[in-house]
Design brief:
The structure holds 3 protein chains of 3 kinds.
Chain A: E1 3-6, E2 10-13, E3 18-22, H1 36-44, E4 52-58, E5 66-72, E6 78-82
Antiparallel strand pairs in A: 1-2, 3-4, 4-5, 5-6
Chain B: E1 3-8, E2 11-16, H1 21-27, E3 34-35, E4 42-43, E5 56-59, E6 65-69, E7 80-83, E8 99-111, H2 115-126, E9 131-134, H3 143-146, H4 153-156, E10 164-167, E11 170-175, E12 180-186, E13 202-214, E14 218-220, E15 233-235, H5 236-244, E16 252-257, H6 261-271, E17 275-281, H7 288-300, E18 305-307, E19 309-316, E20 322-329, E21 335-339, E22 342-346, E23 349-351, H8 354-358, E24 364-366, E25 371-373, E26 381-383, H9 407-411, E27 414-416, E28 421-422, H10 423-431, H11 437-444, H12 456-468, H13 472-475, H14 489-493, H15 510-516, E29 520-523, E30 526-529, H16 539-552, E31 555-558, E32 563-568, H17 572-579, E33 592-598, E34 604-614, E35 617-622, H18 627-640, E36 648-651, E37 656-662, H19 666-673, E38 689-694, E39 697-702, E40 711-717, H20 721-731, E41 738-739, H21 742-751, H22 792-795, E42 800-807, E43 819-822, E44 834-844, E45 849-857, E46 866-870, E47 875-881
Parallel strand pairs in B: 1-7, 8-9, 8-13, 9-10, 13-26, 15-22, 16-17, 16-22, 17-18, 31-41
Antiparallel strand pairs in B: 1-2, 3-4, 5-6, 5-7, 11-12, 12-13, 14-23, 19-20, 20-21, 24-25, 27-28, 29-30, 31-37, 32-35, 32-36, 33-34, 34-35, 37-40, 38-39, 39-40, 42-45, 42-47, 43-44, 43-46, 44-45, 46-47
Helix pairs in contact in B: 5-6, 6-7, 10-11, 16-21
Chain C: E1 16-18, E2 25-28, E3 34-38, H1 44-53, E4 64-66, E5 84-89, E6 92-96, H2 101-111, E7 115-118, E8 126-129, H3 133-138, E9 154-160, E10 163-171, E11 174-179, H4 184-194
Antiparallel strand pairs in C: 1-2, 2-8, 3-6, 3-7, 4-5, 5-6, 8-11, 9-10, 10-11
Helix pairs in contact in C: 1-2
The chains are: A mainly beta, B alpha+beta, C alpha+beta.
């Protein structure tokens, strides 16, 4: 069971969270002008790296906040978590 | 110590309360415990603890448990066990013992209460840290207990400290990421054989530690030689311990060793009165200190020392018990046979690396110690004691796993006793080209039995190394998986069984539903009344009656489970325009509107009615199952994309209880319930909301209909939900008010062609696919999902679209999920291509026949086409129709 | 909100298990109003809320500030007029107490971007009290209950026996649970079951 560092509540059990996929994939402001390919890239394509990845979680059973956190996809190690629209900390790699 | 009696294989024995079953049986002279699983070879106890490979028993007394090592069972009065020939069997009776779980947070978890573990506990306790010390044995002290030596008082007293918790008889079964571990505590088996229903038999601890110290110690391992499995052959540490404690069925002993432990055990055996015929050491030469501490000490006692030799074969008497051993000189191959009834084997130490490998730490091979050790220290985990390579006086062992064997000898030289896997099996794997431990393991089944290779793992790696001329760490690495020892499933389940296995969510009116005898339907975790049968009435009849009452009189439904979200802020209208496909910002205060929301992929995600309570205050309803998901969704967009919008969302699902009165006579009933309210169609229009006292309670009444009929939804604070329901039943009695459940609700809405998200949809339907293009705004610049509607795949021809299906035989209700084939006359024997499937299907009181909704490729353009539905016993023919069956002109909603 | 007791029914009907003199007492606490307040602590509305409530809200998640005498212990109700503010999120408080919170905040609502939602019926309140209260809760509650990590007047949202709830460590050996009403029966079954070994 992962212990996920919520930036508001501190480390909490994984069961309190929902996963929100890769962080920093912003909703395109001019979606109407995007080609099908560009739009499909936004909707479906994620980087899925091996190693450190910035991803989104929501503390559903707690403070209900969405936040970003670095996680190592190889060994589940967590790096720093940070609030949306704040400076992204450097990758722990 | 008190004496207790126990039964083994139907025969009564006595032993000392608390000693292990293995010890007690040896004390009673039982050497032949069982026969091996596959080859029926007589076997005796080998080890001291969970590393035991032979002496497994099925426990029949108390809770009962299959396949337990006799070495780990503390005997109690009335214990009944049977030897298990490698196969366990569960007791026939239900185990009524209590099992539970508990959570624990601690600064430091120390696994192992041997001297190293106790030293670590002392160190952290001294620093003011809270410490839990867990050990799977009944007493602390580790090897010192076995050696009969006192545990230093200053270490033992650490366990009594305020900031130290000691859990004996507790096994850390798994160590996971971030200092999380799971341990099982055996709490009652050592007390008596009773079934404990109040105190839990096994407690599963879920522990979060900031730091975990692994002080797990080591097992002794065996050597691979011919007939190395006879009763009378034991690990030397185990033999010396049993014998020293008075469980001594032996007269003579030969000790075969690769390290100094064999010498110490020879001395212990000698002191306990066993004649030690010889100590056979594969090492020709040893260090000065070993010479002094081990060899000189043994020779001083007059024990014969044979250097540079080992055991290659053994012989048995008529009972199958060990009678003599054959010794071979490693250099000259000269052999000698010595009579003995005990062969004590010291094949070196195998540190217990399991927990470390669970979290991905790789053991390293120590040549000096001939062992895989784990020297590790980081902020989360550290190792100490034998696990970390601190072997004390045994810091000098030969890398030796067994002598060179002939083909015949290899057939009876066991690598894994439980699997009856021999050196011959092993050799076959090597000859077939297997090199990695993982391959050899799977080829031979070595290490896959009950003990999961606790003793055979390192032996196998060593043998591979010997066979192909490589060091053991070049073969691969030992990887184990939780649990460390077998656990009853009941212990893992704990209290999560029966009613407690999953929450049952209930509405404030639930007690009434239950009392009425309504069967319940599970909707997510909610329990909702399915239908309300009259005495003796079938479900089919009840649903037809309920539906007819709604279409002709008045029905009442508990709609309290609908998800509800309070939305406030000046930008709420703009926000809802982005969330829903249709327009909300233009909605007038006091009005409600049905809305559909999609994901960014354009697929329908949830639906519901949203009401504008005041200028900046809205109330959204969601599907019963979608409440949590939708709130997360709203928060996601507000927090991560549009934080500039002034909007707050608050779940009020359980604040509001909703009672819907539905049917042509609902207006009359509403008037009676709220005399102050003008319920005329002119004063209170469809989709309008009014506030009024209902049965003495302030309520919001909404003219919303999920059946097409005139309907009023009465919303009150949930504490009044039951009161409103009872008032409705009382005031509507003479109108023949009819409570109805989820089944009738489904029928009524399907007759109107209203979809249920999750029934007509599976995450691959756009609003267009549901024939709901009318709800997709053409005016709005953007909303979630809009761009995806023009994607090639979403806009393509041939998508599944919502239609109605009428079977030619109106008395037949097509099963939901049934596949549809084009054309009534087409071949319906396989292979046929299906064009869609049934999503909802019911018998209808209003139609006087059955009907169905379906998703059919290009369905909207195929209305009137004949279809067939091949079932197992018949082919059903029918026709594609419009999805609205009742009141196509919406004339009934106003009464 | 005023409660019409003639018509109101609490989810557990005031159930009681164990006792004040026992290892643990588990009981449903009589109805007290509760509100979800949302306000940005960096906004002008925040100061206005504090002023109206006569209380300085702490925007640190998991803290409780209150101006009433004490929590509910045994059969004693909190002092009249009090408000306890449990911080559940960086802009989210659960306000409970007998003060007329709705009336106090009405003017603030009209002038500022805040949200106040009556959730009095949404949650019931279960008190778990006694020397073994912590042990009973630890059977199901994954979070750290050690006093140094969850001291008196700390609160937290989490999951207990798979039911989401708010937990408030309100005084020594006393924990108030605020589960959603629909989970009340389930939670009652779980808590009384967990207490078996201690009673």
């Amino acid at each position: 069971m992962l212990h996920i560092p919520c930036p508001y509540c501190g480390p909490r059990d994984e069961t309190e969270f929902h996963y929100g996929s890769e962080a920093h994939v912003a909703y395109p402001e001019d979606s109407a002008n995007l080609t099908d390919e560009e739009w499909a890239k936004f909707v479906f394509i994620r980087s899925n790296p091996k190693g450190w990845m910035a991803e989104r979680w929501v503390h559903s059973a707690g403070c209900r906040r969405w936040f970003n956190v670095w996680r190592n996809t190889i060994n589940h190690e967590f790096g720093p978590s940070y609030k949306p629209f704040t400076q992204q900390p450097k990758s722990p790699a | 110590m008190s004496t207790v009696t126990f039964t083994f294989d139907g025969k009564q024995y006595s032993g000392e309360k608390g000693e292990s079953l293995a010890s007690a049986l040896l004390r009673n002279g039982v050497l032949h415990f069982t026969d091996s699983s596959y080859k029926d070879r007589p076997r005796g106890v080998m080890g001291l603890w969970v590393e035991e490979t032979n002496a497994l028993v099925n426990v029949d007394s108390g809770a009962g448990e299959p396949l337990k090592p006799a070495t780990t069972i503390e005997i109690v009065e009335g214990l009944v066990v049977r030897s298990a020939q490698g196969v366990g069997d569960l007791p026939d009776t239900r185990d009524n013992s209590r099992y539970d779980k508990a959570n624990r947070h601690v600064d430091v978890l120390v696994v192992g209460a041997g001297t190293s573990g106790l030293e670590a506990a002392k160190k952290f306790s001294d620093l003011g840290k809270s410490v839990i010390v867990i050990d799977d044995k009944p007493t602390a002290g580790g090897h010192l207990v076995y050696l009969g030596q006192p545990v230093p008082a200053d270490l033992l007293s650490v366990l009594d400290r305020e900031n130290v918790t000691y859990l004996p008889r507790t096994t850390v079964q798994g160590l996971y990421d971030q200092g999380y571990s799971v341990a099982t505590e055996r709490r009652t088996d050592h007390l008596d054989v009773n079934v404990h229903t109040e105190m839990s038999r096994i407690r599963t601890w879920h522990i979060r530690a900031e730091h975990t110290v692994l002080a797990t110690g080591a097992f002794q391992r065996h050597l691979v030689f011919a007939n190395n499995d006879r009763p009378g052959i034991m690990l030397s540490h185990a033999a010396a311990t049993y014998v020293s404690n008075g469980a001594n069925p032996f007269k003579t002993a030969v000790v075969v060793t690769v390290d100094n432990q064999g010498y110490r055990d020879a001395i212990r055996l000698h002191k306990a009165g066993v004649h030690v015929a010889a100590v056979v050491d594969i090492r020709k030469k040893v260090s000065k200190s070993s010479k002094k501490s081990s060899r000189k000490a043994v020779e001083k006692l007059g024990i014969r020392l044979i250097k540079g030799a080992t055991v290659i074969d053994t012989q048995a008497n008529l009972d199958g018990l060990l009678s003599s051993v054959t010794i071979v000189d490693a250099k000259s191959d000269l052999q000698e046979t010595i009579k003995t009834d005990l062969l004590a084997v010291s094949g070196g130490w195998t540190p217990i690396v399991h927990l470390a490998t669970f979290i991905g730490i790789k053991p390293t091979w120590s040549v000096k110690r001939a062992a895989f050790i784990v020297k590790h220290k980081d902020s989360l985990t550290s190792t100490t004691g034998m696990l970390a390579g601190d072997f004390g006086d045994d810091d000098e062992a030969a890398i030796f796993f067994g002598p060179k064997l002939s083909t015949e000898q290899a057939l009876v030289a066991f690598v894994d006793y439980q699997r009856d896997a021999t050196y011959r099996d092993f050799k076959r794997a090597i000859d077939a080209g297997m090199r990695s431990i993982e391959h050899v393991k799977r080829y031979t089944a070595i290490g896959t039995a009950h003990d999961q290779g606790k003793t055979s793992g390192t032996v196998t790696m060593g043998l591979i190394g010997q066979a192909i001329g490589k060091a053991p760490d070049e073969i691969g690495s030992l990887t184990f998986r939780p649990p460390y020892i077998s656990i009853p499933f009941a212990a893992l389940a704990g209290r999560d069984r029966g009613l407690l296995s999953d929450p049952e969510r209930t509405t404030p009116i639930h007690s009434w539903h239950r009392a009425s005898g309504a069967p319940m339907e599970d909707v997510g975790q909610w329990k909702r009344p399915w239908y309300f049968p009259m005495p003796g009435e079938s479900m089919h009849a009840a649903v037809l009656r309920e539906c007819a009452a709604v279409r002709e009189g008045v029905g009442v439904m508990d709609a309290s489970t609908l998800g509800k979200i309070d939305i406030q802020g000046k930008d709420a209208g703009q926000f809802l325009d982005l969330i829903y496909t249709n327009m909300f910002s233009t909605l007038k205060v006091g009005m409600s509107r049905y809305g559909l929301m999609c994901g960014i992929d354009g697929m329908v995600f949830d639906d519901g009615v949203t009401t504008r309570i005041s200028e900046n205050h809205w109330l959204m309803t969601t599907t019963t199952g979608g409440a949590a998901k939708v709130l997360d969704w709203l928060e996601e967009w507000l927090q991560t994309e549009w934080p500039h919008l002034e909007v707050y969302c608050t779940s009020v699902t359980e604040q509001i209880s909703t009672v819907a009165i539905v049917g042509p006579k609902s207006r009359e009933l509403m008037k009676r319930l709220a005399p102050s309210l003008d319920v005329s169609n002119e004063a209170f229009a469809f989709m309008e909301n009014k506030h009024a006292d209902v049965a003495g309670v302030p309520a919001r009444i909404a003219r919303i209909s999920f059946s097409g009929e005139l309907a009023y939804e009465i919303n009150v604070p949930a504490i009044y939900g039951l009161h409103i329901w009872e008032s409705v039943m009382a005031k509507g009695a003479d109108l023949n008010i009819t409570p109805y459940g989820t089944e009738s609700m489904h029928v009524l809405r399907a007759e109107k062609g209203f979809v249920i998200v999750g029934q007509e949809t599976d995450g691959t339907q756009t609003p267009d696919d549901l024939d709901m293009n009318w709800i997709v705004s053409k005016k709005k610049d953007d909303f979630i999902g809009k761009r995806s509607f023009s994607r090639a795949d979403t806009a393509r021809d041939g998508r599944h679209q919502l239609v109605g299906i009428l079977a030619d035989d109106g008395s037949y209700v097509i099963p939901e999920g049934a596949y549809i084939v084009a054309g009534a006359d087409e071949k319906t024997a396989p292979p046929v291509k299906h064009i869609g499937y049934i999503t909802s299907s019911y018998d209808s009181a209003a139609l006087g026949r059955s009907f169905a909704l379906a998703l059919v490729a290009n369905g909207l353009a195929r209305k009137g086409e004949k279809i067939a539905i091949p079932m197992a016993d018949r082919v059903v023919t029918g026709v594609i129709t419009d999805s609205v069956f009742v009141d196509k002109e919406n004339t009934r909603r106003d009464g | 909100m005023t409660v019409n007791l003639e018509f109101a029914k609490s989810p557990l009907g005031g159930a009681k298990h164990g006792g004040l003199d026992k290892a643990v007492l588990i009981q449903e606490v009589p109805f007290t109003p509760g509100f979800d307040l949302r306000v940005n602590p960096d906004s002008s509305g925040f100061a206005a809320v504090n002023q109206a409530l006569g209380l300085t809200l702490n925007p640190k998640v998991g803290t409780v500030v209150r101006n009433n005498a004490a929590c509910i212990v045994g059969d004693e109700l909190p002092a009249a007029g009090g408000i306890s503010a449990l911080c559940l999120g960086p802009d989210w408080w659960y306000l409970t107490g007998t003060a007329d919170i709705q009336a106090l905040l009405k003017p603030v609502q009209e002038a500022h971007h805040i949200s106040l939602v009556d959730v009095s019926s949404q949650r019931t309140k279960i008190e778990v009290y006694g020397p073994n209260a912590k042990d009973v809760l630890a059977h199901y509650w994954e979070q750290d209950l050690r006093d140094e990590h969850f001291p008196i007047d700390a609160c937290s949202q989490g999951v207990l026996a798979k039911a989401p709830l708010i937990m408030w460590h309100c005084c020594e050996n006393c924990y108030l649970l605020f589960p959603r009403a629909s989970f009340a029966n389930h939670l009652w079954t779980a808590l009384t079951d967990a207490a078996v070994e201690y009673l």
